[in-house]
Amino acid sequence: MSLNAVTYEIVAQETPNVIRNCRNCKRSTEYFCSDKFRVNANQKIVDIWLIYKCIHCEGTWNCPILSRLNVNRIDPILHQKYMNNDKETIWHHAFQISKLRKLCDAVKNDINYEVRKEKSESVSDEATIRICCKYDFGLRIDKLLAEILDISRSKVSKMAKEETFLLYPTVSMKDKVIDDLQITVKGNRRVFG
Ligand SMILES: [Zn+2]
Prior knowledge:
Elements: E1 4-12, E2 17-22, E3 27-42, E4 45-54, E5 60-70, H1 76-83, H2 87-94, H3 97-103, E6 106-108, E7 113-120, E8 126-133, H4 141-149, H5 153-161, E9 165-168, E10 182-186
Parallel strand pairs: 1-8
Antiparallel strand pairs: 1-7, 2-3, 2-6, 3-4, 4-5, 8-10, 9-10
The structure holds zinc ion (ZN).
Residues 22, 24-25, 29, 54, 56-57, 59 line the site of zinc ion (ZN).
InterPro entries: DUF1062
Protein name: DUF1062 domain-containing protein
């Protein structure tokens, strides 16, 4: 059996905002990630926060990343990344959604993302979609499939009932997209153009 494999990369365009109380606004409001760490060193003891800013005022919230850690216990390369506001490191922390949920009232994970088609291989009447997704922000498989195949969510659920899709690993269509998820679409190669 030859496979028609297409890789789609889900590229987040922004980090999730969080909902918290703002002291200036005197109400629960939305904060965005400032893309900056705050690193405090007191002798050998280091504290690191990721700074969030209220979208309405100058209010900030420091999201704790490392607390009261001896500098010798931090990997020097990672320490440098915190000092330099390394984007990759910032995004890694800004997508720790379950941690953020515990620290905030809510996390707005309905962020903008781009779906990039990476490559396609030989054609057959079966096609496999491979998902590459670096950051987890709770995107549902059925929503993404509707987007990739350019069909409605109800059409996706109808096709799922007809067992058109084979998911590997075995998860439900209502589950969240995970990195390296593979979806085989039976007898539906037209969608890959
Ligand atoms: Zn505010």
